[in-house]
């Protein structure tokens, strides 16, 4: 049984930082690309970042480039999303997901976590 469990969300002020973690089990993490997505209230879920299993391929949404960093530790079966200079518009539920290749397309991700809430106050 595949499980992706996000953690690290919370309530912060604009300009603060947070690091989200995604602990994976039940899948071959070392051969899985990982992605982060987010869904703000009243909006559709959107792509945030993705990383290949080697870490050599990384892609970000334009809205988070230069502020967010995706990474992974294959020895810990964990992916991370370091979020700096947070803005109120970053407020959303953040989801991690696993795919066989790094992509911005949600439909390519076979497994999803339950999400973690990030709230940024102004």
How would a crystallographer describe the biggest sheet? 7 strands, mixed
C-alpha termini separation: 40 Å
The averaged pLDDT comes out at 97
Form type: globular
How many beta-strand segments?
Answer: 11
Low-confidence stretches: none
Overall helicity: under 10%
Radius of gyration: 13 Å
Count of separate DSSP helical elements: 0
What would you say this structure looks like, in words?
The chain is mainly β and 122 residues long. Helices cover 0% and strands 52% of the residues. Strands 2, 4, 5, 6, 9, 10 and 11 form a 7-stranded mixed beta sheet that branches. Strand 5 and strand 6 form a beta hairpin.
Q: Layout of SSEs?
A:
Elements: E1 3-7, E2 10-13, E3 18-25, E4 33-39, E5 46-51, E6 58-60, E7 68-73, E8 78-83, E9 92-99, E10 109-112, E11 116-121
Parallel strand pairs: 2-11
Antiparallel strand pairs: 1-3, 3-8, 4-5, 4-9, 5-6, 7-8, 9-10, 9-11
Keywords summarizing the entry:
single chain; 7-stranded mixed β-sheet; 11 strands; mainly beta; 122 residues; 4-stranded antiparallel β-sheet
Describe the structure concisely.
By secondary structure, the protein is an all-beta fold.
């Amino acid at each position: 049984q595949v499980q992706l469990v996000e953690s690290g969300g919370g309530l912060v002020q604009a300009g603060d930082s947070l690091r989200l973690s995604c602990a994976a089990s039940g899948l071959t993490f070392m051969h899985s690309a990982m992605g982060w997505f987010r869904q703000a209230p009243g909006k559709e879920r959107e792509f945030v970042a993705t990383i290949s299993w080697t870490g050599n391929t990384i892609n970000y949404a334009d809205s988070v480039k230069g502020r967010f960093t995706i990474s992974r530790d294959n020895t810990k079966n964990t992916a991370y999303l370091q979020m700096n200079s947070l803005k109120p518009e970053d407020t959303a539920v953040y989801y991690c997901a696993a795919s066989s290749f790094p992509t911005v397309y949600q439909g390519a991700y076979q497994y999803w976590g339950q999400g973690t809430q990030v709230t940024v106050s102004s």
